[in-house]
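Researcher: Next entry in the queue.
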Amino acid sequence: MIKKCLFPAAGYGTRFLPATKSMPKEMMPIVNKPLIEYGVDEAIEAGIHSMCIVTGRGKHSLMDHFDKNYELEHQISGTTKEALLTDIRASIDAASFTYIRQKEMLGLGHAILTGKELIGDQAFAVILADDLCINQEQSVLNQMVDLYKEFGCSIVAVEEVPENETHKYGVISGEEIRDGLFRIENMIEKPEPGSAPSNMAIIGRYILTPDIFDILEKTLPGKNGEIQITDALLEQAQANCVLAYKFKGRRFDCGSVEGFIDATNYCYENIYMKDKKRTNL
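Model: Structure for this entry, 281 residues:
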Protein backbone atom coordinates (compact mmCIF):
# COMPACT_ATOMS: atom_id res chain seq x y z
CA MET A 1 0.00 0.00 0.00
CA ILE A 2 2.94 2.34 0.63
CA LYS A 3 5.01 2.30 -2.55
CA LYS A 4 7.23 5.38 -2.22
CA CYS A 5 9.55 6.77 0.43
CA LEU A 6 10.64 10.42 0.44
CA PHE A 7 14.06 11.40 1.76
CA PRO A 8 14.48 15.14 2.49
CA ALA A 9 18.23 15.52 1.98
CA ALA A 10 18.86 19.11 0.97
CA GLY A 11 20.04 20.54 4.30
CA TYR A 12 23.50 21.92 4.93
CA GLY A 13 24.40 19.80 7.98
CA THR A 14 25.96 22.80 9.68
CA ARG A 15 26.44 20.98 13.01
CA PHE A 16 29.10 18.86 11.31
CA LEU A 17 31.11 21.61 9.66
CA PRO A 18 33.73 21.55 8.27
CA ALA A 19 33.12 17.90 7.29
CA THR A 20 29.81 18.78 5.59
CA LYS A 21 31.30 21.66 3.63
CA SER A 22 31.87 19.27 0.73
CA MET A 23 30.11 16.08 1.85
CA PRO A 24 26.36 15.71 2.40
CA LYS A 25 25.54 14.87 6.01
CA GLU A 26 23.44 11.99 4.68
CA MET A 27 26.64 10.45 3.30
CA MET A 28 28.47 10.50 6.63
CA PRO A 29 29.34 6.89 7.45
CA ILE A 30 28.18 4.94 10.46
CA VAL A 31 31.14 2.53 10.46
CA ASN A 32 31.35 1.70 6.72
CA LYS A 33 27.85 2.57 5.52
CA PRO A 34 26.41 6.05 4.92
CA LEU A 35 23.38 7.20 6.86
CA ILE A 36 21.11 7.38 3.83
CA GLU A 37 21.86 3.76 2.92
CA TYR A 38 20.58 2.68 6.33
CA GLY A 39 17.39 4.60 5.56
CA VAL A 40 17.00 3.07 2.11
CA ASP A 41 17.49 -0.42 3.52
CA GLU A 42 14.84 0.32 6.16
CA ALA A 43 12.38 1.35 3.44
CA ILE A 44 13.12 -1.76 1.40
CA GLU A 45 12.52 -3.94 4.46
CA ALA A 46 9.12 -2.22 4.79
CA GLY A 47 8.23 -3.32 1.26
CA ILE A 48 8.93 0.03 -0.40
CA HIS A 49 10.96 0.04 -3.61
CA SER A 50 10.68 3.59 -4.95
CA MET A 51 13.05 6.08 -3.27
CA CYS A 52 12.37 9.77 -3.89
CA ILE A 53 15.22 11.98 -2.75
CA VAL A 54 14.96 15.75 -2.30
CA THR A 55 18.48 17.07 -2.83
CA GLY A 56 20.20 20.42 -2.91
CA ARG A 57 23.31 22.10 -4.15
CA GLY A 58 26.47 19.97 -3.83
CA LYS A 59 24.65 16.68 -3.21
CA HIS A 60 25.82 14.77 -6.29
CA SER A 61 27.46 12.05 -4.19
CA LEU A 62 23.99 10.91 -3.10
CA MET A 63 23.15 10.06 -6.69
CA ASP A 64 26.57 8.52 -7.30
CA HIS A 65 26.25 6.25 -4.28
CA PHE A 66 23.09 4.60 -5.62
CA ASP A 67 24.63 3.96 -9.00
CA LYS A 68 27.29 1.65 -10.38
CA ASN A 69 30.94 2.70 -10.21
CA TYR A 70 32.38 0.76 -13.11
CA GLU A 71 36.02 1.72 -12.50
CA LEU A 72 35.91 0.73 -8.83
CA GLU A 73 34.06 -2.50 -9.53
CA HIS A 74 36.55 -3.40 -12.26
CA GLN A 75 39.50 -2.78 -9.92
CA ILE A 76 38.22 -5.03 -7.11
CA SER A 77 36.48 -7.64 -9.27
CA GLY A 78 37.48 -11.13 -8.18
CA THR A 79 39.15 -9.96 -4.95
CA THR A 80 37.97 -10.40 -1.38
CA LYS A 81 37.03 -6.71 -1.35
CA GLU A 82 34.28 -7.27 -3.92
CA ALA A 83 32.09 -8.81 -1.21
CA LEU A 84 32.04 -5.42 0.54
CA LEU A 85 29.80 -4.15 -2.27
CA THR A 86 27.19 -6.88 -1.75
CA ASP A 87 24.84 -4.80 0.40
CA ILE A 88 24.83 -1.66 -1.75
CA ARG A 89 24.44 -3.71 -4.93
CA ALA A 90 21.41 -5.41 -3.37
CA SER A 91 19.90 -2.02 -2.46
CA ILE A 92 20.45 -0.65 -5.97
CA ASP A 93 18.88 -3.74 -7.54
CA ALA A 94 15.90 -3.71 -5.15
CA ALA A 95 14.90 -0.07 -5.59
CA SER A 96 14.52 2.75 -8.07
CA PHE A 97 15.83 6.23 -7.27
CA THR A 98 14.47 9.57 -8.43
CA TYR A 99 15.70 13.03 -7.44
CA ILE A 100 14.44 16.58 -7.28
CA ARG A 101 16.24 19.69 -6.07
CA GLN A 102 14.94 21.92 -3.28
CA LYS A 103 15.87 25.40 -4.45
CA GLU A 104 15.56 27.08 -1.05
CA MET A 105 15.93 25.73 2.48
CA LEU A 106 12.53 26.71 3.89
CA GLY A 107 11.93 23.93 6.40
CA LEU A 108 10.94 20.27 6.45
CA GLY A 109 7.40 21.03 5.33
CA HIS A 110 8.74 22.81 2.26
CA ALA A 111 11.13 19.91 1.54
CA ILE A 112 8.23 17.45 1.64
CA LEU A 113 6.13 19.71 -0.58
CA THR A 114 9.03 19.86 -3.05
CA GLY A 115 8.76 16.09 -3.36
CA LYS A 116 5.11 16.23 -4.46
CA GLU A 117 6.06 15.86 -8.13
CA LEU A 118 7.88 12.61 -7.35
CA ILE A 119 5.19 11.19 -5.05
CA GLY A 120 1.96 11.97 -6.88
CA ASP A 121 -1.48 11.33 -5.39
CA GLN A 122 -0.73 8.48 -3.00
CA ALA A 123 0.20 7.85 0.61
CA PHE A 124 3.95 7.76 1.18
CA ALA A 125 6.63 7.33 3.82
CA VAL A 126 9.22 9.90 4.89
CA ILE A 127 12.61 9.05 6.38
CA LEU A 128 14.99 11.64 7.79
CA ALA A 129 18.32 9.90 7.35
CA ASP A 130 20.03 11.59 10.28
CA ASP A 131 17.56 9.88 12.62
CA LEU A 132 19.04 6.39 12.57
CA CYS A 133 16.52 3.83 13.85
CA ILE A 134 17.61 0.31 14.70
CA ASN A 135 15.38 -2.70 15.28
CA GLN A 136 16.88 -5.88 13.87
CA GLU A 137 13.61 -7.83 14.21
CA GLN A 138 11.25 -5.38 12.47
CA SER A 139 12.30 -1.94 11.30
CA VAL A 140 10.52 1.13 12.62
CA LEU A 141 9.10 1.99 9.20
CA ASN A 142 7.88 -1.57 8.75
CA GLN A 143 6.03 -1.28 12.06
CA MET A 144 4.40 1.93 10.83
CA VAL A 145 3.42 0.43 7.47
CA ASP A 146 1.57 -2.32 9.35
CA LEU A 147 -0.31 0.38 11.29
CA TYR A 148 -1.16 2.25 8.09
CA LYS A 149 -2.67 -0.93 6.65
CA GLU A 150 -4.95 -1.02 9.69
CA PHE A 151 -5.86 2.67 10.09
CA GLY A 152 -5.24 4.30 6.68
CA CYS A 153 -4.24 7.71 8.07
CA SER A 154 -1.10 9.77 8.61
CA ILE A 155 1.24 8.41 11.30
CA VAL A 156 4.26 9.96 13.01
CA ALA A 157 6.85 8.11 15.08
CA VAL A 158 7.41 9.46 18.58
CA GLU A 159 9.61 8.74 21.56
CA GLU A 160 9.84 10.09 25.08
CA VAL A 161 12.61 12.65 25.57
CA PRO A 162 13.79 14.46 28.72
CA GLU A 163 11.63 17.49 29.46
CA ASN A 164 14.64 19.79 29.14
CA GLU A 165 15.03 18.66 25.50
CA THR A 166 11.45 19.09 24.26
CA HIS A 167 12.34 22.49 22.77
CA LYS A 168 14.38 20.68 20.09
CA TYR A 169 11.43 18.74 18.65
CA GLY A 170 7.86 18.78 17.49
CA VAL A 171 5.92 17.56 20.54
CA ILE A 172 2.50 15.88 20.59
CA SER A 173 -0.30 15.24 23.02
CA GLY A 174 -3.33 13.07 22.52
CA GLU A 175 -5.52 10.17 23.58
CA GLU A 176 -3.84 6.79 23.90
CA ILE A 177 -6.10 4.43 21.94
CA ARG A 178 -3.94 1.36 22.52
CA ASP A 179 -0.58 0.68 24.12
CA GLY A 180 1.92 3.04 22.50
CA LEU A 181 -0.52 4.44 19.92
CA PHE A 182 -2.02 7.93 20.31
CA ARG A 183 -4.66 9.90 18.43
CA ILE A 184 -3.09 13.34 18.20
CA GLU A 185 -5.02 16.26 19.66
CA ASN A 186 -2.24 18.85 19.73
CA MET A 187 1.30 19.26 18.47
CA ILE A 188 3.75 22.12 18.81
CA GLU A 189 7.00 22.68 16.93
CA LYS A 190 9.94 23.36 19.26
CA PRO A 191 7.88 24.62 22.23
CA GLU A 192 9.42 27.10 24.61
CA PRO A 193 10.95 25.49 27.73
CA GLY A 194 8.21 24.55 30.17
CA SER A 195 5.36 24.88 27.65
CA ALA A 196 5.48 21.47 25.92
CA PRO A 197 2.16 19.56 25.99
CA SER A 198 4.05 16.33 26.84
CA ASN A 199 7.49 14.80 26.48
CA MET A 200 6.50 12.78 23.39
CA ALA A 201 8.71 14.04 20.58
CA ILE A 202 8.29 13.42 16.85
CA ILE A 203 11.32 11.77 15.23
CA GLY A 204 12.23 11.31 11.59
CA ARG A 205 9.75 8.65 10.47
CA TYR A 206 6.38 9.55 8.94
CA ILE A 207 3.65 8.02 6.84
CA LEU A 208 1.61 10.77 5.19
CA THR A 209 -1.61 10.72 3.21
CA PRO A 210 -1.54 12.77 -0.04
CA ASP A 211 -3.86 15.52 1.24
CA ILE A 212 -0.87 16.74 3.25
CA PHE A 213 0.37 18.43 0.04
CA ASP A 214 -2.78 20.59 -0.23
CA ILE A 215 -2.36 21.61 3.40
CA LEU A 216 1.34 22.39 2.99
CA GLU A 217 0.63 24.61 -0.01
CA LYS A 218 -1.51 26.80 2.26
CA THR A 219 0.66 26.57 5.39
CA LEU A 220 2.26 29.86 6.37
CA PRO A 221 5.83 30.02 7.68
CA GLY A 222 5.94 29.20 11.38
CA LYS A 223 8.80 28.63 13.80
CA ASN A 224 12.07 30.16 12.52
CA GLY A 225 10.25 31.44 9.42
CA GLU A 226 10.05 27.92 7.99
CA ILE A 227 7.15 25.87 6.65
CA GLN A 228 6.72 23.29 9.38
CA ILE A 229 5.34 19.82 8.73
CA THR A 230 4.12 19.94 12.36
CA ASP A 231 1.75 22.81 11.56
CA ALA A 232 0.34 20.95 8.55
CA LEU A 233 -0.08 17.74 10.52
CA LEU A 234 -1.94 19.59 13.28
CA GLU A 235 -4.42 20.90 10.71
CA GLN A 236 -4.78 17.40 9.30
CA ALA A 237 -5.32 15.98 12.80
CA GLN A 238 -8.05 18.52 13.56
CA ALA A 239 -9.89 17.75 10.33
CA ASN A 240 -9.32 14.01 10.28
CA CYS A 241 -7.06 11.70 12.23
CA VAL A 242 -3.29 11.59 12.71
CA LEU A 243 -1.72 8.92 14.88
CA ALA A 244 1.49 9.03 16.90
CA TYR A 245 3.27 5.73 17.36
CA LYS A 246 5.73 5.04 20.16
CA PHE A 247 7.91 2.74 18.11
CA LYS A 248 9.84 -0.33 19.18
CA GLY A 249 13.56 0.04 18.65
CA ARG A 250 16.43 2.41 19.28
CA ARG A 251 16.90 5.80 17.68
CA PHE A 252 20.12 7.78 17.37
CA ASP A 253 20.15 11.51 16.60
CA CYS A 254 22.98 11.47 14.07
CA GLY A 255 22.43 15.16 13.42
CA SER A 256 24.36 15.73 16.65
CA VAL A 257 27.99 14.79 17.25
CA GLU A 258 27.13 12.87 20.41
CA GLY A 259 24.37 10.87 18.72
CA PHE A 260 26.60 10.16 15.73
CA ILE A 261 29.33 8.73 17.97
CA ASP A 262 26.81 6.67 19.95
CA ALA A 263 25.37 5.27 16.71
CA THR A 264 28.82 4.42 15.38
CA ASN A 265 29.80 2.56 18.55
CA TYR A 266 26.48 0.70 18.68
CA CYS A 267 26.53 -0.34 15.01
CA TYR A 268 30.19 -1.37 15.20
CA GLU A 269 29.54 -3.68 18.14
CA ASN A 270 26.09 -4.98 17.24
CA ILE A 271 26.00 -5.03 13.44
CA TYR A 272 29.42 -4.64 11.81
CA MET A 273 31.35 -7.08 14.01
CA LYS A 274 28.58 -9.69 13.85
CA ASP A 275 28.50 -9.43 10.04
CA LYS A 276 32.28 -9.61 9.89
CA LYS A 277 32.36 -12.80 11.95
CA ARG A 278 29.62 -14.31 9.82
CA THR A 279 31.30 -13.55 6.49
CA ASN A 280 34.92 -13.91 7.72
CA LEU A 281 35.93 -10.73 5.88
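Model: The first helix runs from residue 35 to 45.
Researcher: Noted, moving on.
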